Amino acid sequence: MMLRIEGVTKNFGGLQALSRVSMAFASGEFVGLIGPNGSGKTTLINCISGLYRPDAGCVRFGRETISHLSPHRIYRLGIGRTFQIAKVFNRLTVLENLRIPALTGGRLRRREVEARSREILEQVALAQHALVNAESLSGGQQKLLEIGMVMMTDPEILLLDEPFAGVHPELKTRLEGYLRRLNREGKTIILVSHEMASVFRMCQRLVVLDHGVLLADGPPEAVRSDERVISAYLGGRRET
Amino acid sequence: MNRVIPSLLLIAAAAFPLFFRQYWLYVVTIGLYYAILASSWSMLAGQVGLISFAHAAFAGIGAYTSALLVIHLGLPIPVTMLAGAMAAALVGLGIGALTLRMRGPYLALTTLAFSEIFRIFITAEYELTQGSIGLKVPLILGGSKPLSYYTGLGLFLVTLATLAGVLRSRVGLFLVAMREDEDGAETRGVNTVSYRLIAFVLTSAFAGLAGGFYAHVVGLVSPQMTRIGEMGLILAMSVFGGLESLLGAALGALILQGLTEYLRIFTEWRLAIFGALVLCILRFAPAGILPTLYLYGEQALSRWVSRAPR
Amino acid sequence: MLFLSQLANALVIGTLYALMSLGLSFIFGVLKLVNFAHGEAIMVGGYLYYLLASLRLPLPLALLTSIPVLLLFGMVLERVLLRAPYRQRMARYDEYVILITFALGIFLQNLAFPVFGPYNRQAPPLFDGTIRLGELVVAGDRLAGALIALAAIGLLIFLLYRTSLGKGLRAVAQNPRAASIVGIRVLRMRSVAFGLGVTLAGVAGALFGPIFLVNPEMGTSFAVKAFVIVVLGGMGSVSGSVLGAYILAIVESFGSILLPDPTRALAYKDAYGLLLLVLVLLARPQGLFGEKERRA
């Protein structure tokens, strides 16, 4: 198991956003992280990527505990993430956006960075937009650019927060294809999405959160027929 | 076009002492002190988005460090000026390490508190600093006005070149990205805290350098130069010239410094007038007066060109 | 005995500090900005009381008259400098508010120089003479100042927790969007909050006037103290500000005993705040009562 979440709890004021959540991910898995709105999916992603520090519990990557590290360190260790609303740098060009992650660690040389960004531009189909500012891309293209940025340093794990939301159907197919390919090449992908069709099509395993509690974890068919999951999605309130 | 204006400015600056010898040469030399302060401060506030109210205090640190080293150790002035810059950078490192981990107004609050306490310190430690009377300091190259001017011009150009170089490097790219989206930059591997710290320490060092220069041009270092009003003047100059442009801020400094001398008749009121001006600019033309005028000028010019006979 | 009189003095000054920092903390709570012109609001209050008193108005009346003037002054400032940028979601708003309030302070300071001259003025004390409690002696003007400050703090707490205006203000402080959905006029509340913050500072300035001196630069050192206090107490926390004020006053009061040289002791009285600030930033940056900021 390369990524372990061990008893992670996170509170905001009186609200318990995550309550002793534990799970583990093996290398090369394609996992869907689902649950109703406000169930704690994004909070969990924020805890793994270092934007939040858990109030209790920890996150381990390989042998290392990473939950006290800052986000840039976690990214450089090989865990990349995207955001619900794509975070791209609007006033920089697509190419400059791609360069930033590659230049930070000081690992790649200029020429390697250029070669790598050309390669990524092709993969995310933005080659003809290389020199325009990111703000003039469509929402879907920004999502692709964001994944491209994360991929610049070839991380082992990808945490994708709603990558399909607001994406044009044609681009969505392309995006699905790209994610499948990355997974085939050995990337571990953790996908948060409300698009159940895509999730069931792509993921080998589903993890369900509800009100900050881990509800189910297993193969899609099993999770689909789990009664607690059904009642959570049908709006049945659990007693707490 | 982009190279014409700077080249003309440079020629004008180089030839300036041929035409003005005494009073105005001195005024512009002091103006260069403010130009270094304003351009470095505007880089920090305009490009990085960090507001420090200790820039005048850092100049004071540079001035006192340089002065004390010359007086007590007899070191040559260039060495002591560099030491002044280092001292300011060191204090900047301390304040930055303390406050830049957090977002929000902590840097502004702490730097303001620091400036006030620094002023109290140099006023109170009479044996060391001669208190509010100030320290008498030897002048650059025996006090030759043209040579002081050229020294200032050289330091100013070094400042501009260094800061512009940083902005054009990958560090500059990271700084732009951080301003656009801090979490975005951080989760793509940019160590935002340390780049903010680098920017703060670097600009503080230039403030210290400017302070050392000022000390050896004026020949007197006193707590006056660290007053909050001086900080207000630096802010006014940067805002006047445009916070997002190094050269603009420097020009703003020279223009306001010239105006200050020109408005001597209104001695008492001129700082109030500047204050009102800054409030108006910030509120109604946040890009700064010079960029706004430049924009209007360009539009007028292009309208005039398109109307010209074919 | 020295201990007791220092403590009494610290409690008296601490009450005045509490009043002045509540103004800053209150503005931060509702408008989510640090008013860098806070010191100049104190200075304006000091001069206002001085002017009204020199019109031979009865002193309590002079103090009372200054309240509506300060309130209006603060509300107008908010209206002119802060409202439109907030409504239009100006780019770089966070930096704008720091710059504009600082520039406002510089402007007021530089305006006070030609208008009032650079000299120190001393406002007449509300109460002359000294109070004796056994061997303990407290200057009457200080005690009167502290009692008035205490009353003003009580009034503010009443306003905040027992009136509908206070409810509106607290609602906006907690969540402006939700407040506006339930029909609270957010813009007006912001304006009132800024006015109230300036008033609290101004009244504190009026009470400082007789004890310390009134001059155009008097605000700076008080503002720095107020900054230290709100960071110490936790930004925007009312009880934190009050506690922070007393802590600072006590540290200043006893800190000055530690320095043997009396001129130094006097000069460095204002410097203890920075020491306290550094300690807070190192150990507990969110302040005593502050919550950690939620990121992203």
- Beta percentage of chain A is 15-25%
Distance from first to last alpha carbon of chain A: 32 Å
Q: Tell me about the largest β-sheet of chain B.
A: 2 strands, antiparallel
- Overall pLDDT of chain B: 90
Query: What oligomeric state best describes the polypeptide chains here?
Result: heterotrimer
Shape of chain B: globular
Alpha-carbon Rg of chain B, integer: 20 Å
Layout of helices and strands, plus pairs?
The complex is a heterotrimer of chains A (240), B (310) and C (296).
Chain A: E1 3-12, E2 15-25, E3 30-34, H1 41-49, E4 56-61, E5 64-65, H2 71-77, E6 79-81, H3 94-104, H4 110-123, H5 139-151, E7 157-161, H6 169-184, E8 188-192, H7 196-202, E9 205-210, E10 213-218, H8 220-225, H9 227-233
Parallel strand pairs in A: 3-8, 3-9, 6-7, 7-8
Antiparallel strand pairs in A: 1-2, 1-4, 4-5, 9-10
Chain B: H1 4-19, H2 23-48, H3 55-73, H4 77-99, H5 106-124, H6 126-129, E1 135-136, H7 145-168, H8 170-180, H9 182-187, H10 192-218, E2 220-221, H11 228-241, H12 246-262, H13 267-284, H14 289-307
Antiparallel strand pairs in B: 1-2
Helix pairs in contact in B: 2-7, 2-10, 2-11, 2-12, 3-4, 3-5, 3-10, 4-10, 7-8, 7-10, 11-12, 11-13
Chain C: H1 2-31, H2 38-54, H3 59-87, H4 93-116, E1 130-133, E2 136-139, H5 140-162, H6 164-174, H7 176-181, H8 186-211, H9 218-233, H10 238-258, H11 262-267, H12 272-283
Antiparallel strand pairs in C: 1-2
Helix pairs in contact in C: 1-5, 1-8, 1-9, 1-10, 2-3, 2-4, 2-8, 2-9, 3-8, 5-6, 5-8, 6-8, 9-10, 9-12
Report on the structure:
The complex is a heterotrimer of chains A (about 240), B (about 300) and C (about 300). Chain A contains nine helices and ten strands. With about 240 residues, chain A is of the alpha/beta class. In chain A, the strands form two sheets. A six-stranded mixed beta sheet of chain A has the order 6-7-8-3-9-10, sandwiched between helices. In chain A, helix 3 packs across helix 4 (about 110-125) and helix 3 (about 95-105) runs parallel beside helix 5 (about 140-150). The longest helix of chain A is centred in the last third of the chain and has 16 residues, at about 170-185. Chain A starts with a strand and ends in a 7-residue tail after the last helix. Chain B has 14 helices and two strands; from the N terminus they run H-H-H-H-H-H-E-H-H-H-H-E-H-H-H-H. Chain B has helices at about 5-20, 25-50, 55-75, 75-100, 105-125, 125-130, 145-170, 170-180, 180-185, 190-220, 230-240, 245-260, 265-285, 290-305, and strands spanning about 135, 220. In chain B, helix 2 packs antiparallel against helix 12 (about 245-260) and helix 11 packs across helix 13. Chain C has helices at about 1-30, 40-55, 60-85, 95-115, 140-160, 165-175, 175-180, 185-210, 220-235, 240-260, 260-265, 270-285, and strands at about 130-135, 135-140. Chain C is globular. The chains are: A alpha/beta (about 240), B mainly alpha (about 300), C mainly alpha (about 300). At the B-C interface, helix 5, helix 11 and helix 13 of B face helix 3, helix 4, helix 9, helix 11 and helix 12 of C.
